[in-house]
Specification:
The complex is a heterodimer of chains A (238) and B (220). Chain A has 7 helices and 11 strands. With 238 residues, chain A is α/β, with parallel strands linked by helices. Chain B has a single domain, classed as MetI-like (MetI-like fold, Orthogonal Bundle). Classes of the chains: A alpha/beta (238), B mainly alpha (220). Chains A and B meet through strand 7 of A and helix 6 and helix 7 of B.
Amino acid sequence: MKLDVQLRMRLKAEDRLFQLEVAFQSAKSLIVIFGPSGAGKSVTIQAIAGLIKPDSGRIVLDGRVLFDSKSAVNLAARERNVGYVFQDYALFPHLSVAQNVAFPLEQSFRNGASGTAVEEFLAKFDLTDLRTSYPRQLSGGQRQRVALARALIRKPDILLLDEPLAALDPVLRGKTRGELLKLQQSFAVPMVVITHDPADVEAFAEDLIVFDIGKVAQQISIDSNRRASQVREVLGLG
Amino acid sequence: MTDALVPLLLTLKIAVAATAIVLFAGVACAYLLGRYSFWGSQIIDAICTLPMVMPPTVLGYYLLVVFGRRGWIGAWLEKSLGIHLIFTWQGAVIASAAVAFPLVYRAARASLGSVDHHLENAARVLGAGEAKVFFRVSLPLAWRGVFAGTMLAFARAMGEFGATLMIAGSIPGKTQTISIAIYEAVQAGQDSVANFLVLLASLVCVCILAASGKFLQRQF
């Protein structure tokens, strides 16, 4: 799976206007985008998902052109087959866990989606007992599982995760890192993870893309044998 | 006594029809103006709100100009479809709909606008087309505001007087709504009729408020 992103956008952050200019390519399965708040990381993955339109550039996923300003291609979000897990999970509050997970499979206005696929996914993500609960009744970790199940049930070509562990407490974070890695392998879906936590970089990155305000500062391929020390080096940690 | 019920039933008929129209039109306009911004959208927004602040007789006059026998739309309706609206209950429906429209429109805009756009984006990324985003996410999350606006619209349509009188007149059994009937009874010194109609109208309003309050409560 090859992801090729080039984009330019003018952004407003608080009172400043800044130019976001991003260019990176990767064929790895686990890409981590690391950088400070306001660097443009979320905007970048929103552009990949089709939720924001860059001013110019080109986004190609596995040979499919998702966006190309020169040839006026701009696929709607629903056509990109990209999975997205929002920072606050964005679960539909008026739908139960089962309905949330089934949402992507609903045909036209019918509520009942393919029953067995949904049940399978609920079981896979340990949500069967929670199927009739509503998001407001769930813990942070449970909500994340629902968000992941909902994003993956459509078998996306790539999964984008915006700070997936930020809302979890440190103990849960460690456990969830392991689960995300397992998920990546069992679904064989490439993941792009945004984070500002070096521990996440250490755990996940095969390709690390470091953002500075408004641009990609560097892109490094992480060698799995020297993972921890290399990451520390790159991020300038002791 | 049953004679006195006629204005009430007529008013209910007109108000229900007008509310149905503005519910659909108000939500549709709120959705379109909220989602797409284009040159002139602010002007259209102002026009949609105008009937709320305009004196009803002024609005009635404008409706006459548009829908009257020699009006812009009225003349066409008469010529091609043989429909005339002046002095008919359908004309009264248009008058009530015109005054009630802003109430649904503004409530719908506020409600739809307050739906977390992350949720709408999540739906889009999950493969939902715009219709599914609206009917499965935006509207269900905005329905309480829309409902409240609709109840206000219904009450406004029930009580419409000025614009209705201008466009539909006061024909007993056809266009004499309860507000107009009360006015005429008072003018003619028919106090007992007026009392009865006022009591009836008040009772209906209280029942509507109570019912809608209970309905809103029951949801959670």
